[in-house]
Amino acid sequence: MIICADGLASIREAISTAFPNTEYQRCIVHQDRNTLKYVADKDRKEFSKDLKTIYNATNEEQGRKNRDYVTEKWSTKYPNAMKRWERDWDVITPIFKFSADVRKVIYTKKAIESLNATYRKLNRQRSVFSSSQALLKALYL
């Protein structure tokens, strides 16, 4: 099993305690966003394109080479931008164990965030559901 999550403090330990033998994958979308905070607006498009070469690499070795290239290319202009990629590499790399089709699903936690947003919206409109089945119908219809 694999769980894609943010880099919240102690999340990795909580996952390994609750679900032993589960792979923890850092959410790449959040990793990107956190990186781009350090980059000026005028450079974000090019920088973002370079970041994609890291997690779209065919394997971990190529991903590491691409990460090192991006770090070298941008380090003089944005010295702090790539520090998290180096520090968190071990929780970014599980993505390379999977096929391209699976990667598209696990590189972000957007699906669950979308479901949670829908639930919050429904809950604001109606805080009580007659049954769990009624809640599921409201969520998925």
Automatic annotation (TrEMBL):
Keywords: DNA recombination, DNA-binding, Transposable element, Transposition
One Pfam family named in its UniProt record: Transposase_mut
A biological-process GO annotation: DNA transposition
A GO MF label: transposase activity
Keyword Cell division: no
Keyword Transferase (UniProt): no
Family that this chain belongs to: Belongs to the transposase mutator family.
Stated role: Required for the transposition of the insertion element.
Name of the featured protein: Mutator family transposase
UniProt source species: Amygdalobacter nucleatus
